[in-house]
Automatic annotation (TrEMBL):
Domain G-protein coupled receptors family 1 profile as annotated: residue spans: 41-276
Topological type in the membrane: Multi-pass membrane protein
GO MF annotations, alphabetized: corticotropin receptor activity
SUPFAM superfamilies in the record: Family A G protein-coupled receptor-like
PROSITE patterns: G_PROTEIN_RECEP_F1_1, G_PROTEIN_RECEP_F1_2
Protein name: Adrenocorticotropic hormone receptor
Keyword set includes Transmembrane: yes
Domain of life per record: Eukaryota
The UniProt record lists the keyword Ubl conjugation: yes
Organism of this sequence: Pongo abelii (Sumatran orangutan)
Lineage per the UniProt record: Eukaryota, Metazoa, Chordata, Craniata, Vertebrata
Residue spans crossing the bilayer: 30-50, 57-79, 105-126, 147-168, 180-200, 221-244, 256-278
GO biological process, one term: adenylate cyclase-activating G protein-coupled receptor signaling pathway
Protein family according to the UniProt entry: Belongs to the G-protein coupled receptor 1 family.
Amino acid sequence: MKHIINSYENINNTARNNSDCPRVVLPEEIFFTISIVGVLENLIVLLAVFKNKNLQAPMYFFICSLAISDMLGSLYKILENILIILRNMGYLKPRGSFETTADDIIDSLFVLSLLGSIFSLSVIAADRYITIFHALRYHSIVTMRRTVVVLAVIWTFCTGTGIAMVIFSHHVPTVITFTSLFPLMLVFILCLYVHMFLLARSHTRKISTLPRANMKGAITLTILLGVFIFCWAPFVLHVLLMTFCPSNPYCACYMSLFQVNGMLIMCNAVIDPFIYAFRSPELRDAFKKMIFCSRYW
């Protein structure tokens, strides 16, 4: 989505002239380093789950879905940097057909990262809800077959939607759709939380008998959601301001932080694996075995 997620140079020139706020520029090396770390960390998460049979459960498959989303976000920045380097070295014709096509593909990865994160967090929230309030029926409701089907539907939808958003990125309705998915996810999860709270009040005794792991999973989701909002909300706000008030000096002042907002998105991919490791002893053990090349692998 060129006018949404391209580099800061594409921001409206009039907005810059109307604002006294200097734009914040961060070294591309920092973006590249954080992106590499994000890809490697999330790749470790995926390998840990797929190589450890004890982790091959619906909950961890949903976590893998979120890890893939984070990895795509990091991969987007890596490929973008490579494209810029090739262009600066003269190997690519500026605004040529190849660069335009490559740019569209890279932009699709970015949109896919956001969409994948939104739907992955939503399905994790639904999984935690079922775990807490339908604990006895959980394994009959959330089967591996249903998990695979749900994830296949999610990623098929996200891929199609991501491509469509890049193609029609110059239309305002596309921007509205792109940004509205963020609050819609929050409303969905908030509704689950409110319902969970109301049920918890009327089933306090039942809730207290649940395994601690079930409640711990809900807390982990809360942390993941909080980090996601903190890292992505500034960028979503940037998109809205750039679309609806590009000439306003106050909007332009906020948009001068474009690269800082982009850095937060890259940091999200780095932070999430630490949350998994800190909150899940099983994943933490799997990470240790992978890192230290344990014989158990």
